[in-house]
Write a structure and sequence with these properties.
The chain is an alpha/beta fold and 391 residues long. Helix content is 52%, strand content 18%.
């Protein structure tokens, strides 16, 4: 662990002293202890800090949240919130200030050290990303100026470049968000599990609950990484059709087991398997991407207690599959965008997703010479139907 210059903002002298000792034990330099937001800003105007440990409730006119907003605007220093409360109201107040981390009192030294390292790492990566974005914007401006007086073909080339830059920006936005949400959940749940484990009375149910949250978050992160890597291969024309013999029943069960393991909203999958041969020849990885994404989407956008109907049959050397849900459906005016990368309909609400699933399905079907169609109405659900040649 590297040594950092840290400012403590805490109006409780005992808590401030304990925090100072914990930080000094980890070889950090304490610039000072401020018991109000005004004093904290005064210290920062005279001394450089690497990180600020900020209590939410402070004496004076500036509370921890308002003080953090000012620090973000003037100094751009990472701030770690300190609070004895983890209720939803408190979390909603601090989320708008983009804190680097959130520590629940009481904390232990190991936990504190881990949070500080993550906060510094997050701050550095965000600044690196901002620098890269600024450089990219500057290059785009320069290129635009050079092409200002160019002919029609150069103007078309500029438009194409703009589209590419927009796609890059969307990739950065979606991937960054996709990383942040699961990792934040992992960290928060791990901290809560530590607190529960230190209690004298049993907390098995709560520990199990947060363990499930960790597992689901990691699964979501892995799925996002898999999707991004898939399109990396697709853009490099490295997706190949690799047919081999496969046991169809085992394959279907694997897909269902994977999707069922990730269900969080009590949706049930009802399967109808018709005339399926024991063995077929096809690319199992591409088939897996198709059916796993379609089923996962059907489950994700259904309400609690609803069913997703999965039907798969074999006819005329084709696998004919359909996935029908009774969920939110797709707005008619947005359906033409359905297979575009990163597209998410306006009616998905707070349901998380990267907008890559259906574009992956379409890409796999193109490689397999398959076809896809769908019918959808808002609030009445969606049915996807695929036909895939196999031998």
């Amino acid at each position: 662990m590297f040594s950092l210059k840290i400012l403590i903002v805490e109006d409780d002298p005992v808590s401030a002293l304990l925090l100072q000792r914990a930080l000094e034990k980890n070889k950090h330099e304490i610039l000072g202890i401020a018991d109000s937001g005004e004093k904290a800003l005064d210290v920062l105007s005279q001394k450089h800090a690497d990180i600020v440990m900020m209590d939410i409730n402070l004496a004076g006119e500036l509370d921890g949240i308002k003080t953090t907003e000012i620090i973000n605007e003037i100094y751009g220093i990472p701030v770690v919130y300190l609070s004895a409360s983890s209720d939803a109201e408190t979390l909603n107040k601090v989320v708008g200030t983009n804190p680097s981390a959130y520590v629940i009192k009481p904390f232990n030294i190991r936990e504190l050290n881990m949070v500080i390292e993550l906060a510094i790492y997050k701050d550095r990566k965000e600044k690196e990303l901002q620098k890269l974005n600024n450089e990219l914007e500057e290059k785009v401006k320069q290129r635009t100026k050079e092409l200002y007086n160019a002919n029609i073909e150069l103007t078309k080339a500029l438009e194409k470049e703009r589209e590419i830059n927009e796609l890059k920006s969307r990739i950065v936005l979606n991937v960054s968000h996709g990383f942040k949400t699961p990792l934040t959940s992992i960290l928060s749940s791990a901290q809560l599990m530590q607190i529960y484990a230190e209690k004298d009375h049993p907390m098995k149910q709560k520990i199990a609950k947060h363990a499930v949250k960790i597992e689901n978050s990691v699964r979501a992160l892995n799925n996002l990484l898999t999707s991004v890597l898939f399109f990396g291969k697709a853009d490099a024309n490295k997706i190949e059709f690799k047919p081999k013999k496969m046991f169809l029943g085992a394959f279907v069960q694997e897909v269902l087991d994977t999707v069922n393991a990730g269900i969080e909203n009590e949706v049930k999958i009802k399967s109808e398997l018709v005339n399926l041969p024991k063995v077929i020849t096809s690319d199992s990885e591409l088939l897996y991407q198709i059916f796993e994404n379609l089923l996962s989407n059907g489950v994700k956008y259904s309400k609690n207690g609803q069913e997703v109907i999965f039907k798969l049959e074999y006819a005329d050397n084709k696998l004919i599959g359909s996935v029908k849900d009774y969920g939110v459906g797709i707005p008619v005016e947005e359906q033409y965008q359905l297979f575009e990368r990163f597209f998410r309909a306006k009616n998905v609400g707070i349901v998380e997703g990267s907008g890559l699933g259906l574009s992956i399905v379409k890409k796999c079907l193109d490689v397999l010479n398959g076809q896809i169609s769908f019918e959808s109405n808002p609030k009445n659900g969606t049915t996807f139907r695929v036909e895939i040649p196999v031998s």
